[in-house]
């Protein structure tokens, strides 16, 4: 028997989050490193207290989290993440089984993150009056129903954080955080949304390609 759970993702990107992203794009590389290190040390302390540890031969937890936070703080000119993160944990009778299931769940979580980011991009085009409200509603609906297609379109991911702990019954609980290139994430979303729109007989994908630079 294997128990598993995907960590939830936010349903939308708030104005405060967008403001924070804009501020981060103005920060120097050294300042980003300092911010990432500070956040990583704080999370590492919490995880260690809860019994999480790294596998033999893996990078120290602080180093893994350093890389994770730094990747999460990078955005392109559209305020779209240069890397998207998916995270999940799973419990299994052995380490490999738990890890495999956690990675699959993290991939599904990642697909949800891509949904959220693409929806925010679409909403931004509406606010700039580049896309009619009805058109945007149709595209957004296609994004929200394309999670499985997005997940299937995701290529190779990077495992940034991998930790585990042993339960009282000796089962292994594995927590992973995976990263995916933002450009490739857009391509995965584009493929899924295009398929959804074409199935509905709509030509909106051509306009969307032009507006979002896909």
Give a written overview of the molecule.
This protein is α+β, with helices and mostly antiparallel strands and 214 residues long. The chain is built from eight helices and five strands, in the order E-H-H-E-H-E-H-H-H-E-E-H-H. The chain has helices at 15-25, 29-49, 61-72, 95-127, 133-144, 147-153, 182-199, 204-212; strands at 3-6, 53-54, 83-92, 158-166, 172-181. Strand 4 and strand 5 form a beta hairpin. Helix 4 packs antiparallel against helix 5 and helix 6 (147-153) packs across helix 7. It starts with a strand and ends with a helix.
Helix count equals: 8
| Strand order in space, largest sheet | 1-3-5-4-2
- Category from helices, strands and their pairing: alpha+beta
Q: What is the CA-CA span between the terminal residues?
A: 43 Å
Helix content: 55-70%
Radius of gyration using CA atoms only: 19 Å
Which overall shape is indicated by the principal axes computed on the Cα atoms? globular
Low-confidence segments, ≥5 residues, pLDDT <50?
A: 6-11
Major beta-sheet overview: 5 strands, antiparallel
Please give the number of β-strands: 5
**What are the secondary-structure elements, in order, as H or E?**
EHHEHEHHHEEHH
* pLDDT averaged residue by residue: 84
Oligomer: single chain
Strand content: 15-25%
């Amino acid at each position: 028997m294997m128990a598993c759970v995907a960590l939830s993702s936010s349903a939308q990107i708030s104005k405060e989050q967008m403001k924070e992203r804009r501020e981060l794009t103005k920060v120097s590389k050294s300042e980003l490193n300092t911010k990432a290190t500070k956040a990583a040390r704080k999370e590492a302390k919490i995880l260690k207290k809860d019994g999480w540890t790294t596998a033999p031969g893996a990078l120290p937890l602080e180093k893994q989290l350093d890389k994770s936070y730094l990747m999460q703080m990078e955005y392109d000119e559209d305020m779209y993440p240069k890397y998207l993160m998916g995270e999940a944990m799973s419990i299994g009778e052995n380490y490999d089984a738990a890890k495999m299931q956690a990675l699959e769940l993290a991939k599904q979580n990642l697909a949800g993150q891509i949904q959220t980011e693409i929806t925010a991009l679409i909403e931004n085009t509406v606010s700039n009056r580049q896309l009619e409200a009805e058109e945007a509603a149709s595209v957004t609906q296609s994004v929200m129903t394309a999670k499985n297609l997005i997940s299937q379109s995701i290529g190779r991911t990077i495992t940034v954080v991998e930790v585990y702990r042993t339960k009282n019954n000796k089962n292994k609980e594995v927590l992973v955080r995976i990263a995916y290139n933002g450009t490739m994430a857009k391509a995965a979303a584009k493929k899924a949304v295009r398929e959804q729109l074409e199935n509905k007989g709509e030509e909106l994908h051509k306009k969307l390609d032009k507006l979002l630079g896909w």
